UniProtKB/TrEMBL annotation:
Pfam families: UDPGT
Documented EC number(s): 2.4.1.-
Record InterPro entries: UDP_glucos_trans (IPR002213), UDP_glycos_trans_CS (IPR035595)
PROSITE patterns linked to this entry: UDPGT (PS00375)
Originating organism: Paspalum notatum var. saurae
Residues in coiled coil: none
Domain of life: Eukaryota
Name used for this protein in its record: Glycosyltransferase
GO MF term set: quercetin 3-O-glucosyltransferase activity; quercetin 7-O-glucosyltransferase activity
Amino acid sequence: MSSSSPPPPPHVLLVSVPLQGHVNPLLVLGHRLAATGLLVTFSTVPHAGLKFPYPDGASVGVGRGTLRFEHLRGGDLWPPHDARYGGNGTDVIRHLDEAGPAALAGLLARRPPEPAPVSCVVANAFHPWAGRVADGTGVPHAVLWTESCAVLSLLYHHFRGLAEFPPAEAGPGAPVAGVPGMPATMVAADLPGLIHVPEQFVWRRLLVEDLRSLGDTVSWVLVNTFGELERPAFDALRRHLPSVIPVGPLLVGTTAAEEEASHGGEDDDGCMAWLDAQPRGSVVLVAFGSMVKVSRDEMVELAAGLAATGRPFLLVVRDNNREDLDDCLAAAFSGGGGKLVAWCEQARVLSHGAVGCFVTHCGWNSTVEALASGVPVVTYPTWADQPTNAKFLDDVFRVGVRLPRPMARDALRRCVEEVMAGPEAAAMRARAERWKAEASAALAAGGSSERGIREFVDAALSSIAAGDD
């Protein structure tokens, strides 16, 4: 009697542009997909400015599956050591749009004995070239939307002509009406920035191509959120896009393996030890993400405003945003109440009991991390999806207050005090704690995040089996 080996598990390829806000959630998704028993390959272009601990060819066991790493390379792609990766994110995304297809096609064409051929591709939004390459090889394709479902719904309704939006000349206070699932008080200033930028702007051009493919060549749209947080937006969008699935929150560090993936054992510059020494709920965390550049004038006001609060604060300023700012920063630290770092494990810091307030640019990763940690916020959005996220944090989730632009020290001090000790501070924190509980439930066994991932895996497996018939 002869025995045969079981068939290899389906092989899912994840493709990310090498920007931290894109890599982190896709990498967490990779861990969770592998845990279901799949073989998952993660591909990007690691470079000096990217926190990414895995070398080319590395492989780790995750649950019943395997997560392996194969870097994008070759052709006209900049090599990993190229300094241009650490510059303007727009330049990086434009370069990947030109050089990425050939590199990805080369990866898909490689057919070593192991692993098995790729049977499904998952790529982040804003690089539709990955989908074009997958379609060209007949491989099913999914998109991971790394912004909110509300933003996706607004953009989908706008670019598909499903709702009327105020023109740019109507002004920031023009009401936004007729978009289902959105707050009644939404105005033009709350819309995602890509709606009104010039058509030739590369982020807008790639977004439009992405949106045109949803429901057409894209088989599934995975969203880094949880249904309990954005139920009205999901209900509205599913009328037009049934394949949209919440699979979040995709939080770095939810499991030990994911936490190791987020920093690779790097030193945290003493952040956690410093937080351990602070009173509970006393610290103001200030961080503006991996792409926002703080101007000198803003830094002067920010530093003075933080010093004026009289509260301990943890200020994160990237090395590439520190040039000629040392004198501005010195003013904030003259009283000895703050700590300055170039980087921190933000989700881990936010979950520390000493943190009582988060001054944030409202990128979606930061927004979800704040909600999942139960930390109230001071919102200071700049562009892209950030104004919409700030609107929801302030007026829908009701866990924060808006810091007006431009940055002003007195306004910053007042906003921090309102969140930390004002008349509504206790109510804000209670609402933040409720969202923390909802996020925990979504991430628990049998929660909505696990159900969403299982829904995608089952659908993908069915599609793969149908293709094999």
